[in-house]
Queue: 4 jobs
Job 1
Amino acid sequence: MKNSGAKVRAVAAEIVDAVLNGGRSLDATVAEHEVRVASRDRALLRMLCFGALRQHWRLNAYIQQLLGKPLRKRDAIINSLLAIGLYQLVDMRIPDHAVLSETVEAARLLRRPKLAGLVNACLRRFTRENMAAALPEDDEAKWNHPIWLTEAIRKDWPDDWQAILQANNERAPMCLRVNSARGTASDYLARLRAAGIEASDMTGIPDAVVLSEPQSVENLPGFIDGDVSVQDGAAQIAARWLLHDRLAGAPVHRVLDACSAPGGKSGHLAEVGGDRIALCSVDNDVARLERVAENLHRLGADATIIAADASNPEEWWDGEAFDSILLDAPCSASGVIRRHPDIKLLRRESDLARLASLQTALLTALWGLLAPGGVLLYVTCSVFAVENDGVLGPFLNDHDDASENDVLPNNNIRDLMRRKACGYQILPGTAGLDGFYYAALQKKKVS
């Protein structure tokens, strides 16, 4: 395709601009625009967009130094294009001459031909003066996080905050979940080797396989048939923890996956539970519930799928108690920033109190749906205490029929977790995992 290199950079700049100046979700915007570039260029498109946003503050510091004065508001997209160009020069193995020629041409494709010379001059100066060798002077550029987020992480994790920030700025590995109803991780590793794909297993997480390099799902053996799914290892802990030692000899076990979209954990519950569970998946996002249905269909699994607000059971609950409940609560997603770098740009400090209030409301409402003796597993992908043990502690104090069940599904995951006042925290980057919080609550049996 003529000018395909310039085209992918122009589209990348439009995506980054949509996040920075339009408040758009990175994943949704990439999905919307990647069809505009050749299929062979889509991996590069994603790398440019995600990388430029991971390194936003450092790159922006360079841009301010190069420009001297801000561009006009209507030309703000050139800032995003410069970030794309600088990211290539600093962090990618692309020859400088290719970066310059394709990025300058992208300015013309963005209908800014008069600024093509400026882009060229900025990128040439950057390489000529070796500006990448200069260390950032301010903390935002140094850590590539907004100040409020850095301080919040430092407050909650005074001994680990630097490691968390560094992990947030790294590319996450691609992790798969092997369908245990179809085979083992060992079996699937052999299939990957036969296909020429390098991978390894993950200690303590029996269904997990980690790829050495990301792959298109079309390249994964059996993906279309439901033999494997894409899911981080930390997220895979949920299903086996919730159903741990609870199915043997029992009648059909009623399981609720609240806030279930896009369906990764519902799929895993269905794989582990099989025909021994009756699964209900609830979410208030109708569009994302379609993903739940698609995922379950690909896996050949069944569930009752309900579009509703899980915090208002009177609108959707049939009155029959659930034996197990998974509450994967909406949260700041501060533990998965490396997969979603736009979180650093879109999340606000004021969101934390609002989310904690929502989490408390969900937990309180769903507790009434749990059968005596049942377990509710509370999960977030947050590293903040206010959303985790800060929610669970007051809840336990207010509910005499609730206690923490701290029995882990296997002892091999204990070393991955930090014990909190209530529950367990996995920090981002630990053994290659995302950041997740888990707490299992047991409901007292009626005497």
Note: The radius of gyration is 23 Å.
Job 2
Amino acid sequence: MADFQSLIKELEAEQISIVAGSVDSPEKASDTVKKNGITFPIAYGMNAEETSRITGAYYDKNRQYVHATGFLIRPDNTVETVCYSSGTIGRFVAQDLLNLVKFYKSRNKG
């Protein structure tokens, strides 16, 4: 989340909104927000197993959490692309997502 916060102005300039979801408690989510200076919305207290079932995100039954999953949603509310992580690597990076959106926009200006 800190990665996206670090580019929030650039993302907003491209009309990209960031929303995060977490299985953390309100207290832990609040600590994360404060620690990283997060200014975008974060849903908290999500049910990990249910979130996995709905989104297809990988669920670690032993540790009861969902691996990072990112969705790029188009202005018409359809899914453009998804990045599913099955471990500690393999997730959207803010600069890559920003570049991808700029690329998509450049193709549509033809």
Note: The first helix runs from residue 2 to 6.
Job 3
Amino acid sequence: MKDFIRPMLYIISLIACCIEIDISVPCFPNLIEYFKTTESLAQHTISINFLGFFIGSLIVGPLSDAYGRRPIMILGNAVLMIGALCCFWASTIFSLLEARFFQGIGASVSAVVVFAMIADTYSGKKSAQIIGIMNAAFTCFMAISPALGCYLNQVFGWRGNYAVVGIISIFSWIAIVLALPETLKIKKRVTVKQIKYDCFILLKSNYFLCTSSAPSLLYAAYLSFITSAPFLYRQTLGLSLYDYAMHQVIVVSSFSIVSMLSGAILKYMTSLQCAVMGISLSIIGVISFLLGSLVFPGAFITTISVSVFSVGFALFYPVIFTASLSIFPSIKGSATSLIMSKRAIIIALVVFTTGHFYDGKLSTVAQIMFCVVSIAGLLMGLSLFKNKR
């Protein structure tokens, strides 16, 4: 029973975090028109969100080691809820950016502490299967988020997109307060000196750095496309809002369906096989996108190529993420914090770079994705080499 209730609570706490990007991206053209701003600033609502996520991630892991997982979850999700509501009430693009920054800080808490709680309770393949179950649930929400975002934007305007995230955040906070159990059995005294020492231990491990960075790079490549998609499909390729939503749903669903099946896949494949197949498909997908953007630029080849990339990403992420958490089991909180903060800054930099160099061409986004995925592939190779040694 606990194996059902706990993942459900974890999913509830992560729903607002996992849908806020996909549900807000479709309103970017409306943000530009409403605030009389630029495409770059609209995309920066994502990068600034991940900057807040980065800052929050650095501290919430050690704090949860010292004060317990539950109280930090309650406090952090309150910040997420307030930030989400401030997005709805934003009167300028800069006040929206400020709200997104604090929303990112709040979102970092669930993203870090939930995985520390999983590491407290489960290990090995069981941990990967639990992460797969969670992906199966909240990626279903991700799959419908683009279409929902388009609908909300069309009916209620851009504020409707942020209003839904705010409402979900309120219900999530209430569920955490009422039902989330504490999983940390032994709290430890945490000082600045101890945090520095833990970070030193983690940062000097090349194996940890390679293993934890590769999934983050794939996530960053994925989001660089998702945040550019409304402009690519609607402006560059000339699709209607409905057609854009359908293409976005296909891309997100390809990730969602494979994530949903990750627990079953791990029964027939080893973690290493999943990782190798995942990174291979990611590379194949992004190369196809790059070649297609140069030779046959179109919506169909773009969606199919990025969907292949997304399938590889979904295979790769849970097993490598789980492996990175198991390298230093005695400092799970600090390890999770460092992984998530590093992931956030990588995503912020890649999305910022995509927004900065965006020129309306498919090939520009494809080239950025190709560079990022190539680095991930190199780190994966180094990780496997160091593991064998």
Note: The radius of gyration is 20 Å.
Job 4
Amino acid sequence: MVNSQPLESRRESIRDLLDAELISAGDRLRFARSRVGEEHIATVSPEGRIVLPDGTEYDTPSDAAKAVAGTQVNGWIVWRTDANRTLASLRNQLRDTTTGTAQSDTPHQYLSEISEQLEAGESVSVTVRELLRHWNARSRGTRITRRIEKDLASQGIRTFPHFRDITLDSLVRFAIVDVEETSSPTNNSALKMHTLTSSEDENEDSDPPQNGLKVGNLASALGGVTSVTRDNTIDQAITLMQIDDFSQLAVLSPNRRNLTGAVTWKSIAIARHINPNATLRDCIIDASEISYNQELVDVLGVLRSVGFVFVRNEVNEVSGIVTAADLANAYGDMATPFFLIGELDKLLRHIVSSHVPFSDVVALCDPSGSREIKSFDQLNMGDYERTLQNPDAWNRLNTKLDRALFCKRLEMIREIRNDIMHFNPEDILSNTVEMLRNFLRMIRLNMPA
């Protein structure tokens, strides 16, 4: 019997692939485990179950894969048809058909082509910005990041480094996910970030994780590093620092792989004060280093004590430097709109509480009483918007401003506020600070105190 529930309201199943004639009853499925030299065979039943050679049947691909592998595995990406199509790629094709999207224009088709190139042994690299373009995105908010991660996982591929952890114009290269490695209990956390487990893949209603800034999101972290070796002279080091107005240099081994220390204006001054004939070796101090995919907030302590830290990229090369100034700029860009939003919140709360009865506000913002609003302090930006959209409440303000235009801009600012509170700096418009300041100025000039 065909499932009559709308496909977009539930998770797809093997039965849906059968109904769409993307797979047929009796078709053979293969699960190759190259690392252990095994290949498991299964067939598709007329009821849409996965049947193993011993006759046991499983409702989901992941349950069948776990039964033969003995560990949690994403069955949608490991089971392949004789045409070498993963069940995930067939599911993606079904989704494209259901949404009426031309297959050649979908992210799924794009990733399918990438997968074919990787299977053929080709190397594929793109900038993060180019990758996002295939999802009609310009920034990496939590939801679009989650969507791309799930689409990558459904094709059994990942990006290296993770597209979230570097700048928009940095390159990522695609790689095929090693199923055995992702299911291994000794697997490292970096790889786990690139791969969804079967339970995550089959539960698409879970909330997306909130992503903090990574060291690699700073341009200076992957922008290259100016260095000297222990055999250079102090004059050479000073010249390099003055040419680009640097305060420190990395001291690398001749092959540029090993970081042996750093040279700074302060270390040069101290060495020469002790010995006017000091060499560059006398000026070298210890240097801290971190990985590009480390949380930026974790670097605060190091930068507070030493002022700079060198960064290693995904292939363990010294790729850049992060200074206290870089960190101040990164958080400063987010802090200004954050504080402006806070000021706007206080101002709107004062205006609403001064002119609109509390009972009216509750009736507009919590008519069912489920939120149990007890005071104006519990109101949020959405509540101000709902209140001021009401003509009676708006008229109490006795302002000449146009209500519809005011509330339209307030709606835009509410959405910006959500991005700011989730610390997604790329989702914040470039003119956000100017927009917030103008809105605050307009309220102060045209609304009663």
Note: Residues 4-10, 182-210 have pLDDT under 50 and may be disordered.
